[in-house]
C-alpha cells in the first residue's frame, strides 16, 4: 500500500467555493437570496461574489491575509463567505448585534448570525443544495412568522431561547406547513421542545463548537420514537445524540482518569471528540491548544459535562464552569432550569452558583415570567422545584427580571448573573 499515495486526481480539495459554482450551474435561475424587496438568483450571486473577490484583490488583499467583517445578516455578508476565500484570504466574521411551490430546494430563514461559526456553516450548505436564503436584519417574532408564511420557509436554526420565544409569541398563528428547525447552542429544556413542536415546528437537535467546524453530534431520530407520547419524544430529543459522519468518535470520559464513564445516563464526565473536522489548533495560542488537545489519548476536550446513555446517545448536563458544587454534590444547572421552564408562568430561567459559607455553593435562580398569565411568588417557585427534584438541587433564592441578559446570539449571559448572585443575600431582591 505504500505506493498508493495521494495524487492530484484523488486529492483535490473540497471547498465551499465548489458549492457556489455548482449552484450557479445547476440552479442558476433559482432564487438564492431574499432581503426585504430585493432578491438574487444563484447566477447573480455567483457573479457578485466574483466581482467582490476582484475588488478585494484590487484593494491589495493578498493570499493568507485576514479580512474581518462587521455586518448583520444582509446579502453582502452572505457573499463575503465566498468572495473572501475566492481572493485567497481568510474570512473573520466579527460578532454584532421566491414562491416555494416553484422551487424544489429548501428555503432557509437566517435567524442565527452569520458571524457565529459562519452561521453554523449554513451559508455554504445552502449553496451546496441550491436553496433560497431569506435574510433577517433583526430577530423579531412577528417578522419571523411573517417571513415563514410569505416565503414558505422550510428550514431555520436557533438557540433554545429562540424556540422559547417562538412558542410563547403572542398573536401567532399555527403554521400551515412544516418548518424544520435545528436547535443548538445550549441544551434545550424538554418543555420548550414540546411547545415548539405543538406550534408546528419539526425540531432537530445538534451540538457542535467552532473548534469542530460546526455540527459534530446530532440527535439521530429513530422511526419507532414517533409512536411515543410527546413528552417522551421531547425527552429523547433533548439529548445531543451521536456523532455525525464528520466525526470518528465521541465519548464521555472521567477528566482525571481519562477512562470512559459507564453508559448509564447518570455517570458524569467530560465530552470528548475525535475526527477530521476538528481544528488543528488555536492560531498563535499554543497554550490554549495544549489545554484542549490530548495527543496521548487522541481526544479534543470540549469543556462540556455530560453523560452517555445505554443506547450510545450523549446528553450535555452543563458547561464545566456552570456546574454547581453544593455540599459535595454536583448540581446540573441545566436540570434545574428544565424544571423551572416546566412551570406554566415561567418564560425564561437561568440557574447559577451563589457562594455559601456552609455548603460552598447553592443554586440561585433568575426567572422572567409571562406577565399576561399572572404572578407567582418566590416561595411558590421554590416549592414547585422541591416537589420535582432532590432538595440539594432546589434553588435557595429566586430573583425575577423582566428579561434575562443575553448575548447577541441569544444565549443567556450567565457570567452577568453569577456576578449579580454574589452581591445578593439569601432570598435575593426582586428586580
From TrEMBL:
Gene3D superfamilies associated with the record: 3.30.300.30, 3.40.50.980, N-terminal domain of ligase-like
This protein's UniProt keywords: Ligase
GO molecular function: ligase activity
Domain AMP-binding enzyme C-terminal as annotated: residue spans: 335-411
Top-rank taxon: Eukaryota
Protein family per UniProt: Belongs to the ATP-dependent AMP-binding enzyme family.
Protein name: Uncharacterized protein
Protein's organism: Stephania japonica
Native organism taxonomy: Eukaryota, Viridiplantae, Streptophyta, Embryophyta, Tracheophyta
Amino acid at each position: 500500500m505504500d505506493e498508493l499515495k495521494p495524487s492530484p486526481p484523488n486529492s483535490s480539495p473540497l471547498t465551499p467555493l465548489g458549492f457556489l459554482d455548482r449552484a450557479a450551474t445547476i440552479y442558476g435561475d433559482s432564487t438564492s437570496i431574499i432581503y426585504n424587496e430585493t432578491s438574487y438568483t444563484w447566477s447573480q450571486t455567483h457573479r457578485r461574489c466574483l466581482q467582490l473577490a476582484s475588488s478585494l484583490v484590487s484593494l491589495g488583499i493578498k493570499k493568507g491575509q485576514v479580512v474581518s467583517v462587521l455586518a448583520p445578516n444582509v446579502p453582502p455578508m452572505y457573499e463575503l463567505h465566498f468572495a473572501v476565500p475566492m481572493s485567497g484570504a481568510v474570512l473573520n466574521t466579527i460578532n454584532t448585534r421566491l414562491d416555494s411551490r416553484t422551487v424544489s430546494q429548501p428555503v432557509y430563514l437566517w435567524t442565527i448570525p452569520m458571524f457565529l461559526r459562519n452561521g453554523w456553516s449554513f451559508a455554504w450548505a445552502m449553496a451546496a443544495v441550491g436553496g433560497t436564503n431569506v435574510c433577517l436584519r433583526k430577530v423579531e417574532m412577528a417578522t419571523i412568522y411573517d417571513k415563514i408564511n410569505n416565503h414558505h420557509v422550510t428550514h431555520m436554526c436557533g438557540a433554545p431561547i429562540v424556540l422559547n420565544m417562538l412558542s410563547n409569541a403572542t398573536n401567532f398563528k399555527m403554521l400551515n406547513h412544516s418548518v424544520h428547525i435545528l436547535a443548538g447552542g445550549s441544551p434545550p429544556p424538554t418543555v420548550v421542545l414540546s411547545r415548539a413542536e405543538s406550534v408546528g415546528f419539526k425540531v432537530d437537535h445538534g451540538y457542535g463548537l467552532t473548534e469542530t467546524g460546526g455540527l459534530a453530534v446530532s440527535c439521530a431520530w429513530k422511526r419507532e420514537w414517533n409512536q411515543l407520547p410527546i413528552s417522551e419524544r421531547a425527552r429523547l430529543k433533548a439529548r445531543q445524540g451521536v456523532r455525525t459522519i464528520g466525526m470518528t468518535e465521541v465519548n464521555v470520559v472521567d477528566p482525571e482518569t481519562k477512562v470512559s464513564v459507564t453508559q448509564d445516563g447518570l455517570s458524569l464526565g467530560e465530552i470528548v471528540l475525535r475526527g477530521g473536522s476538528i481544528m488543528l489548533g488555536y492560531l498563535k495560542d499554543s497554550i490554549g491548544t495544549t489545554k484542549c488537545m490530548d495527543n496521548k489519548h487522541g481526544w479534543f476536550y470540549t469543556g462540556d459535562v455530560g453523560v452517555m446513555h445505554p443506547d450510545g446517545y450523549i446528553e450535555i448536563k452543563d458547561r464545566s464552569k456552570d456546574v454547581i458544587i453544593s455540599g459535595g454534590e454536583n448540581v446540573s444547572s441545566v436540570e434545574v432550569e428544565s424544571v423551572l421552564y416546566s412551570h406554566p408562568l415561567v418564560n425564561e430561567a437561568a440557574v447559577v452558583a451563589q457562594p455559601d459559607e456552609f455548603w460552598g455553593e447553592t443554586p440561585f435562580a433568575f426567572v422572567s415570567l409571562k406577565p399576561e398569565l399572572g404572578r407567582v411568588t418566590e416561595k411558590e417557585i421554590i416549592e414547585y422545584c422541591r416537589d420535582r427534584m432532590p432538595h440539594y438541587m432546589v434553588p435557595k433564592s429566586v430573583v425575577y427580571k423582566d428579561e434575562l441578559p443575553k448575548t447577541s446570539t441569544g444565549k443567556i449571559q450567565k457570567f452577568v448573573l453569577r456576578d449579580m448572585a454574589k452581591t445578593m443575600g439569601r432570598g435575593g431582591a426582586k428586580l
